[in-house]
Amino acid sequence: MSDILMIVTAATSLTLKDGTEHPTGYWAEELVTAHRELVAAGHAVTIATPGGVAPSVDAGSLDPSQTGGESRAREFADYLDAIAGELATPRAIADVDAADYAAVVLPGGHGPMSDLAFDDATGRVLVAANEAGTIIAPFCHGPAALLSANLADGSFAFAGRRLTVFTDEEERTGGTGENTPWWVESRLRERGAVIDSAAPWSDHVVVDGNLITGQNPQSSASVAARVLAALAAR
């Protein structure tokens, strides 16, 4: 079985366009689904955050209106309680060697827009993992972290790569709306990524070599399944 690195945001808020703070963190469904499926398949998951700060769940992601009902909200909350020890003591991304892991998984929530997108340590790990052909699997807002991956000449490590991400349309209609400080999909396009989007809120996964991306929370299980299949094929 393989060692998997899960890079998680440590941000607790996102500064919106009007200067107000929007409470955030990681999205429960995304972290829970990926962690649970990988561990159930026998893989070991190491959680890492900027500075080794314990990550916070976005409270909205445990609201039954967001999870699809009370039972799913309890399911996610119970799983987070079960791995509370891991969440309380993450590794610092700066201390991580990408060569130690067979895959790097990055769940979303708006948090990555505050920290991972600008984190040099995250960028170093992603560049090294990509150069080694390691599986890299960000989904929903997780692909914001790819923006930190710059090569020595300043160019974007994932320019020309085909991927999907929480779309600008989804952000406008079900995210932070027109008060969004910057648009992840648009920024990735500007840096040279080739964005492949499906209908809003549909389960959509894009695979481009070692890069596996998912569009939104609805894609969480499919991303995990693709990562497991990619690991099994190695």
From TrEMBL:
SUPFAM superfamilies: Class I glutamine amidotransferase-like. InterPro entries: Class_I_gatase-like, DJ-1/PfpI, Prot/Nucl_acid_deglycase. It holds the Pfam family DJ-1_PfpI. GO terms for molecular function: glyoxalase III activity. GO terms for biological process: methylglyoxal catabolic process to D-lactate via S-lactoyl-glutathione. It comes from the Bacteria. Residues 30-228 form the DJ-1/PfpI domain. Keywords: Lyase, Stress response. GO terms for cellular component: cytoplasm. Belongs to the peptidase C56 family. HSP31-like subfamily. This is Thiamine biosynthesis protein ThiJ. It comes from Agromyces aureus.
